[in-house]
Amino acid sequence: MEWGRVDGVEMAHVTEAIRVQGRKNLVVQIPTRDGFDVFLTQQSGGIPADPIALYQLTAQLQEQVFDGQRMRIAGLRFPMVDYSAKGELSWLKGAMALGDDGRPCIVTQAAFEHRLRVNEIGARAQAAVAICTTRGGGGPPGLEINGPFLIWFARGGVPYFSAWITGEHMKEPRNLD
């Protein structure tokens, strides 16, 4: 990739990187104003398309970062990002649980959507999952979320954002700022 053709972000104040054992590329840790850390590392290939497998890879890297060797760097430059991914969670289809009434509830459809935007001002990451189920034993043929619902996001296996979505929130946003 030629940097002259990509809009990038320059961060001269980032002066430390982490060498992780068995990894060719360095990992950079950028603290945010709200107490979270953003980690960046270059990787060309070998990235799983399945969001769960990708999560497992990043969780493994997260553990290795703490044992890594810290080293000085002379700033950081990386591309701006406008990322969106959607897909099926086919491995979840057919999963079953019992409802409070003892009747089975079977997952018939599951999908995800991820968005990430990064520029010189900051970063915004969003994730969503939609699941449809069918109730067994003569119940309705499916379940559609069309009322208030709970949504949450997690990093490193720890939930860091959750929201109760009610009717007043169910509308198309003007933008994502």
Can you give the mean pLDDT? 75
Task: Tell me the number of strands.
Answer: 12
Envelope shape: extended
Question: What percent of the residues sit in helical stretches (DSSP H or I)?
Answer: under 10%
Number of domains: 2
Largest sheet, if any? 4 strands, antiparallel
Q: How many H/I helices? A: 1
Determine the strand fraction and express it as a percent band. Answer: over 45%
Low-confidence stretches: 139-143
What radius of gyration results from the CA coordinates? 20 Å
End-to-end distance: 29 Å
Structural class: mainly beta
Listing every helix as H and every strand as E from the N terminus to the C terminus, the arrangement reads: EEEEHEEEEEEEE
Write the layout of secondary structure elements.
Layout (H helix, E strand, L loop, with lengths): L7 E4 L4 E4 L7 E5 L5 E5 L9 H17 L1 E4 L3 E4 L1 E8 L7 E3 L5 E15 L4 E13 L13 E7 L2 E8 L12
Antiparallel strand pairs: 1-6, 2-5, 3-4, 7-9, 8-9, 9-10, 11-12
